[in-house]
Design goal:
The complex is a heterodimer of chains A (432) and B (418). Chain A is mostly helical. Chain A is 76% helix and 0% strand. Chain A is globular. Chain B has 418 residues and is α+β, with helices and mostly antiparallel strands. Chain B contains 19 helices and 21 strands. In chain B, helix 8 packs across helix 10. Classes of the chains: A mainly alpha (432), B alpha+beta (418).
């Protein structure tokens, strides 16, 4: 290496010891290291659709469906574990792997399912924003337009990954509010715990619709794509498996606790008063024991934060994983002209969802719930791909699913398929 | 022209025209400019068999015709340097050297050259995608009716670099010699598109200097990712090859443990240099300067000075100015490379230099540095301490980086924050 003379230490300038990172950044890095893919993915699960669905379930069925929450979180842990393992073993995204393993036709099929489900989720996020701002009298047409502009702005400025943690923060705050509110309301704890462990079945189509919605909001096609890409893009390796499993477990547990407390809070307040939720204002009342008159603001803030968190994740994951499969430039390093497919998909998602929510008189709460049902119906197809990939030794090497994990995966998938069939059957037979 | 997708699944007939099985895959021996097909994998009723190309009389989109009646039904075993076109290449990711992009193979185009079938290009266009999906016909009709060309895109095999991880069971050590010949900035943009695993494979095949040059062009986050993935010894070697200011910026972004580990493998004087640069505030002249510059005594003649330049072999960004210092290391003058060359060989540089050159203080704000560089149209500005001693230079590229934030568009969404 070439060197000039005069490389002398400047006088009068004290040399500071090494670290040049500002303190806040060091702290942020530490937090992010803990908040791994599993936690982020788990947290993003409690998006607008999540909060709404859990509220509906608690209000309509009281504690009765708590067992579904527990069961779907157990399944969530295993499906997220498989997704993370795929990412660890291959360093690739889900759609890319599907294409490499089964060719372009299956990849197109999977992408179509994934995009349909995710479009539904994106609509739900916009509906969440519409509901939250509707509490203050903002018409959904206005809030959807504003939200679309804000989201586009975040994406264009590339700052979503930064504000994401702000939304996670709001999420933690509001989750805490549900925990406290549930406790203050004085729920029937023995009954709640009993319902958590002992399933109570019913033949009513509404019941199964609620079951499917709950499952659909917890285990999602985008969640599978998200955790796998996240793990792969973080550059995690097979050695990271134990830490990663812990992270995924923590994420599933956290989601479970929050979901459970939302249901309990609603059961102890709204269900006890025989209220039905037809608008966000009704759902917000579950927080009344804690917040009193400030309920609306707290609930609206939480729903808004959750919706924006979801909007940062769902359309991006969709565009990212699709473009990866088809070999189109993904957003990371390209501008609009260079990556038309990526930005086109993003624009379509945001534009379509915003316009959809603008339909006058749209029942936003129902739309959010039905989007979760749509997710649940499409999920089994994606899971079949995931499970087949996970057991393939040629792709996974030592990380391939063994007998036990394989069996759990297939049983979960089978149960989900069965649920969808039950839903379809009960809707046909017992439908109005 | 024949496409791989048109061959797969087509019947294989014996000389009498009797079908014996179906084409499952094509084998090519890579290495040649346009690698030849060396054999077929054929599925018969029960099993997969291998047919050497010598026993194939003819192949087209209707199927393959055999030359011989008896075929060796040996089990197929892949040899070194052979890849399966469907198994290893189709639908996989490759690097498009020409377009500097990572893309997916939609189809492979083959051509008959002197009686043998050769791989000539990979199809990465929409037309290829539609052909695979079975919509090529309608798609072409649609394109014609919209009065648009069918977006066909092929990449010549010469401009393709397969990635290690796409080849199912990495038996092939891809040399990546094509990547090594790229401009560092292009190499950097390709590396940034690769998955961490592919990066490791590509970087392992390149020499330290090539990696160091490319590193200087990468985004800070990618630099950190790449460095953390390397063995500490290799990382240290690469840091040594980088210019000290870039190395210092990178080291500052590493976490404590990785940093200590890597620095412990670096040579002592390189470490000193990096530590020194790290001591300055990030947004000051000291924080963006490099300590690589040419400083000579004023007593030297022009021809001696040129000899010294030859000896030192300075990097491109530092050669344009020669600084002149006194015995205490104080900056007293500057010569441009042009001044030096047009000066009479025996003239003392002290006589031809520009006295009291423009300089900035080591703690000057980076915006001020940029202004000075722009105002005086400099390629580099010297940085001096309180006593007027030369401590480094800020080159024009580093100076303008602060005014034009590192390629704005490059900071577009990074979906999954690292």
């Amino acid at each position: 290496m070439t060197q000039g003379q005069g490389r002398r230490r400047p006088a009068g300038h004290s040399l500071r010891p090494f670290p040049r990172l500002p303190a806040w950044r060091v702290r942020l890095v530490a937090v992010l290291a803990v908040l791994g893919p599993g936690l982020v993915s788990g947290f993003a699960d409690n998006d607008a659709g999540g909060i709404t669905t859990y509220s509906l379930v608690g209000t309509q069925f009281g504690y009765k469906l708590l067992w579904v929450i527990l069961a779907s979180q157990v399944v969530l842990f295993f499906t997220q574990e498989v997704g993370a393992r795929l990412g660890l073993a291959t360093g690739k995204g889900l759609m890319g792997l599907i294409r490499e393993r089964w060719g372009v036709r299956w990849a197109a099929f999977a992408a179509l399912l994934m995009l349909t489900a995710n479009l539904g989720s994106t609509v739900a996020e916009f509906a969440g924003i519409g509901s939250a701002l509707g509490l203050f009298g903002v018409p959904p047409q206005v809030s959807a337009a504003v939200a679309a502009v804000v989201v586009t702005g975040f994406i264009a400025l590339g700052s979503y990954s930064k504000v994401q943690y702000f939304f996670v923060g709001i999420g933690i705050l509001v989750s805490g509010a549900y925990v406290i509110s549930a406790s203050i309301a004085g729920p029937d704890w023995p009954l709640a715990i009993h319902s958590l462990v002992v399933p109570q079945l019913s033949a009513s189509p509404v019941y199964w619709l609620a079951v499917v919605g709950t499952v659909g909001t917890t285990i999602t096609p985008w969640g599978q794509a998200f955790i796998q890409s996240y793990v792969a893009d973080k550059g995690l390796r097979p050695d990271d498996l134990p830490a990663n499993r812990l992270d995924v477990f923590a994420g599933a547990l956290l989601t479970n606790l929050i979901a459970g407390f939302i249901v309990v809070a609603c059961a102890a307040t709204l269900f006890a008063e025989h209220v039905t939720i037809s608008s966000a204002a009704d759902a917000a009342r579950a927080l009344e024991p804690l917040a009193g008159p400030a309920t609306t603001v707290l609930f609206a803030g939480g729903l808004l934060g959750a919706s924006f968190l979801g909007l940062g994740v769902v359309p991006m994951t969709s565009a990212y994983t699709t473009c990866e499969a088809f070999g189109w430039e993904t957003g990371v390093n390209w501008n609009w002209r260079e990556a038309p497919a990526f930005y086109g998909l993003l624009a379509f998602f945001i534009g379509f969802a915003a316009l959809f929510v603008m339909i006058p008189g749209l029942p936003l709460i129902q739309v959010m719930f039905l989007a979760q049902v749509l997710n649940a119906l499409l999920l089994p197809f994606i899971l079949i791909f995931v499970m087949l990939l996970a057991r393939d030794r040629e792709i996974m090497g030592a990380l391939a699913s063994g007998r036990i994990l394989g069996a759990i995966g297939w049983i979960s998938t089978a149960v989900l398929i069965l649920l969808s069939l039950v839903l379809v059957a009960t809707s046909v037979v017992g439908g109005p | 022209m024949l496409f791989l997708s048109q061959c797969i699944g087509r019947p294989v007939r014996d000389p009498s025209g009797e079908p014996i099985g179906k084409v499952a895959d094509l084998i090519v021996a890579i290495g040649d400019r346009y690698p030849p097909v060396t054999g077929l994998v054929v599925v018969t009723d029960r099993r997969q068999i291998f047919l050497p190309w010598s026993s194939v009389a003819h192949m087209d989109a209707t199927g393959a015709q055999l030359r011989v009646l008896t075929i060796d039904i040996g089990k197929f075993r892949q040899r070194q340097n052979e890849i399966l076109l469907k198994g290893d290449l189709l639908d996989k990711q490759i690097v498009d050297i020409e377009g500097r992009k990572v893309i997916r193979v939609n189809d492979v185009s083959l051509d008959e050259i002197e009686g043998a079938l050769h791989v000539v290009a990979v199809d990465v266009g929409a037309a290829g995608l539609m052909r695979r999906l079975g919509f090529e016909g309608p798609f072409r009709v649609l394109a014609r009716n919209l009065r648009r060309g069918v977006p066909e895109r092929y990449i010549d095999w010469e401009d393709v670099d397969p990635l290690d991880s796409t080849i199912a069971s990495v038996r092939l050590r891809v040399p990546h010699s094509k990547l090594a010949q790229l401009h560092p900035a292009d190499l950097a943009s390709i590396v940034e598109q690769l998955t961490p695993r592919d990066r490791a494979g590509v970087l392992a095949a390149l020499d330290d200097e090539a990696v160091a040059d490319a590193m200087e062009e990468m985004e800070p986050e990618t630099q950190v990712d790449v460095l953390e993935d390397l063995a500490p010894e290799r990382a240290a070697d690469i840091l040594e090859e980088m210019s000290p200011d870039d190395a210092a910026d990178l080291v500052a972004d590493l976490d404590q443990d990785t940093r200590d580990e890597i620095l412990s493998h670096m040579e002592q004087d390189e470490v000193e240099e990096v530590r020194e640069l790290l001591g300055y505030p990030e947004e000051s002249a000291g924080g963006i300067m490099t300590t690589e510059y040419i400083a000579l005594e004023k007593g030297l003649t022009a021809s001696q000075a040129i000899d010294r330049l030859r000896e030192l072999e300075p990097d491109a960004e530092t050669i344009y100015y020669v600084y002149v210092t006194d015995d205490d290391g104080r900056l007293v003058g500057v010569l441009s490379l042009r001044d030096l060359i047009v000066a009479r060989p025996w003239a003392a540089i002290g006589d031809v230099m520009i006295h009291e050159p423009v300089a900035v203080g080591v703690l000057a704000d980076q915006d001020e540095v940029a202004e000075v560089v722009a105002h005086y149209n400099l390629l580099a500005v010297p940085v001096v301490d309180d006593e007027g001693r030369l401590v480094g230079i800020v080159t024009v590229d580093d100076a303008i980086d602060t005014v034009i934030p590192t390629a704005w568009k490059k900071r577009l969404p990074r979906v999954f924050s690292r």
